[in-house]
Amino acid sequence: MCAALYAARETLGAVFARLPLVARIIGEKAVREGSWAFLFACWVAFVRSAQGSRMCEAMHCFFPLDEMIAVSVERLTGGMHPRAKGILLSPADATAVAMDQALRGAGGGVKSAAVQPLDAVQDGALSSMVRVVLTYGGGGGGGGSGGGDAPASVVVKCVPEDLPTRMSVNAKAMFEREIAFYRTVAPALRGKLSAPRLFDARQNVGNGRCAHLVLEDLAARPGAEFHAPFKEDADLGVRPEAVHDLLRQLAAMHAQYWRSPDFGVGGALHWAAEHAKFGASLPTRQEHFLYHLGWPKFMRHFAATTPDALRKLGDELYTRLPDLYEHVFNRGPLTLIHGDVGVYNVMFHDGGGGGGSGLAETPRGKALADEGGARACIFDWQTCARGRGVYDVAFFLSFSVPASVRRAHEERFLRLYHEGLVAGGVSATEYPFEQLRQDYAVSLVVAFTTLVFSMGFLPSQYVHPIEIGAKRAIAAIEENDAVAIARSVLFPS
User: Fold this and answer.
1) Computed from CA positions of residues 366, 371, 377, 383, in that sequence, does the dihedral angle turn out positive or negative?
2) Pick from 18, 46, 12, 44: which is nearest to 31 by CA?
3) How far does the chain reach from its first CA to its final CA, in angstroms?
4) Which of 213, 232, 358, 443 is a plausible cystine mate for 391, CB 3.0–4.6 Å?
5) CB–CB of 415/433 below 8 Å?
């Protein structure tokens, strides 16, 4: 009971932060002083209001009661979950001793660990991440100079320290999914997919999850290029040859897990199916709720540049968004998808060195390096789940490729991806190019909705970046007749 009250107080603190000034002052005073009777009275009055009803719906989507109770128990028992021993709860825990344990004594033992911020971390990140620069007792560090396989630096990724974000991330098992990817999927795709090397990962399961990953520092790869999201086309700098390699890798992954029986209960990929966007799943409820918040804001800013047909479909998605998700993430030929293949989650490099995937040793990797083509390394696998593979393709091409490049190469990109599926064992008869084209169009609309629900929670300084992304996405939707195709899925005759 005490834990539940503590959870309620913590959650109400987050709720009051969103209220008008007077209500916020009253609520925060009650939270500080622990006036439970007064707090309960305020809560009853609040939930009876229209705003309170919406906030309760948000809490149901983002802060499940069992997760709140588990986190509260952690707080009440001294700030560490009883099952979290040995897990780095924040970047500050990345000490030399902790890194030595994570790297299992590489390089003669870690002598020092200097924590540095990561430039790539954006507002709204769903984890706490830092770079940790290492020196070793065996003399220096990095690339084996400290002995064998000792890296000069690593990236440490922990659960978010912000309580509401952490509960939302935990409710969707985002760290469990990412760790499962690195432990089960990445080894099976060695030579086909480039991803960061995993040095160490630890987690507790169940409610109140804590976890950490110690990963390869991709910035150490030769010629590493990272890109911020939603730059203007002229500043984006994504080259067609880099897109080719990314699509080949995605096709190889999608083909390997095409209609996999491992998505079933008890299968090796059950975690990807459990957290897919379908029916009344938690990700669907969350994004549908945020869509309700985001669409009016999107229209307020971008109605003039949104085509009438897309605006009408956007209104209909107030109620039909779960149906669109059902088509893309729960029907048809399903596979393992990344779920967030934006340029911000892909590092391009020159193909030399970097020992994460072994891709450079394959004939394709050597050919790309000989041609001077940049190679892609995909990271941040927290959102990987089950869905139609072409969704990853649509997401990247509509948001992360300059419109002129997509327009000039789109047919070639899609045929290259389809050829990769067929080369990986997918039947061209079962999944012809025409079907891929249709799925691509519907996926363009689903990708567009991510901009809409982002408007529901991102602060006002993100309006311009979203405008840049919307411009590219709307162009792709119009040029592929995607609204009409999506409507044929939602409203079959």
Assistant:
1) negative
2) 12
3) 54
4) 443
5) yes
pLDDT at 322: 93
Residue 264: phi, psi to the nearest 5?
-70, 170
Write down the pLDDT at residue 284.
87
Residues in the chain with pLDDT < 50? 1-12, 14-16, 18-22, 24-27, 30-31, 34, 36, 39, 47, 80, 82-83, 142-147, 353-373
Q: Is residue 68 part of a domain?
A: no
Domain for residue 286, yes or no?
Answer: yes
Is residue 401 domain-shared with residue 468, that is, in the same domain?
A: yes
Q: What is the pLDDT of residue 90?
A: 87
Residue 72 pLDDT: 58
d(CA 212, CA 171): 16
Tell me, yes or no, whether 72 lies in a domain: no
Q: Which domain holds residue 323?
A: 220-490
Q: What angle do CA 310, 251, 256 make, to 5 degrees?
A: 125
What number of other Cβ atoms are within 10 A of residue 306's Cβ? 17
> Are 182 and 96 in a shared domain?
yes
Rounded Cα distance, 487 and 493, in Å: 10
> What is the C-alpha separation between 288 and 321, in angstroms, rounded?
7
Count of C-beta atoms within a 10 Å radius of residue 107 = 26
149 part of a folded domain: yes
Q: Are residues 172 and 253 in the same domain?
A: no
Q: At what angle do helices 282-302 and 50-62 cross, to 10 degrees?
A: 130
CB atoms within 10 A of CB 194: 29
CATH of the domain at 364: 3.90.1200
The pLDDT assigned to 44 comes to 53
Type of residue found at 420: G
CA distance 127 to 463: 23
Q: Domains in the chain: how many in total?
A: 3
Residue 311 has a pLDDT of 97
On whether both 207 and 224 belong to a single domain, the answer is no
